[in-house]
Amino acid sequence: FLRGQLFGAADRRASRLRLAALAITGTAAAAFVLNLPWPGGASAPAVVEYAPLTTVRAGSPGFVQEVRVREGQVVVPGEILAVLYNPQLTQRLADLQLAIRASEVKSRILRQEDRLADAMAESKSRAELIEKRDNLQRQVDLLTVRAKSTGRVVARNLGALVGQFVSIGQTLMILGAEDQKELQISIEQSD
C-alpha cells in the first residue's frame, strides 16, 4: 500500500494529497485528545468538614467544673454541654438577694411608722437592686452552657477544660450539623 502510494502511477497522486490531509488531520485529532485532562488521572487531598460550624462560647466568666459531653456526641438544643463555677458571681447574687430582703423589711417598717416618703425612696432603691439582681442572675444562668442547635461535638481533649478559667466569649467547643458538610479539596491549578 505504501509502495503504491509513494511510487505508484500519476493518477494516484491525487489520493496521496488526500492521504496527507487525512494523516495531518488524524495526528492533530490524536494530539488534541491526548492533551485533554483525564478524569481519573489526578489525585488530590481532600477534607470533609461541617459547614457551617457553630461555636459554643462561654457566656459568663468562670472555672470549668465539668464537661458533660464527649467528642463526637450528638447534642440537641437545650442540652447541657458544660457547667462553670464562679464563686464571686454567686456570692454577689446572694448578697443582692439579702439586700433586697432587707430593703423589703425596711420599707415595711417605714410604712408602719408612717414615713411614706422614706418608704417610697426605699422602694425605688429596691427596684434598682432587683434590676441588678436580674442582670447578675442572667450571668449566673450562663454558667450552665447549653447547646443552641442540634449538632455533633467537634472538639479534642474536652477533659483538659476541667479546672480551667474561661472568660466571656472564649471558645469551649464547636458543633457541626450532620446534614451540612462540605468537601474541601487542594488541587493544582493545572489539574
Secondary-structure topology with pairs:
Blueprint: H1 2-7, H2 13-35, E1 46-50, E2 53-57, E3 62-67, E4 74-75, E5 80-85, H3 87-112, H4 116-141, E6 144-146, E7 151-154, E8 165-166, E9 171-176, E10 181-185
Antiparallel strand pairs: 1-10, 2-9, 3-5, 3-8, 4-7, 5-6, 7-9
Helix pairs in contact: 3-4
Question: Can you describe what's shown?
Answer:
The radius of gyration is 39 Å and the shape is rod-shaped. The model has no long low-confidence stretch (mean pLDDT 86). The strands form three sheets. It has a four-stranded antiparallel sheet, with no helix packed on it. It has a four-stranded antiparallel sheet with strand order 6-5-3-8, with no helix packed on it. Strands 1-10 form a two-stranded antiparallel sheet. By secondary structure, the protein is of the alpha+beta class. The chain has helices at residues 2-7, 13-35, 87-112, 116-141, and strands at residues 46-50, 53-57, 62-67, 74-75, 80-85, 144-146, 151-154, 165-166, 171-176, 181-185.
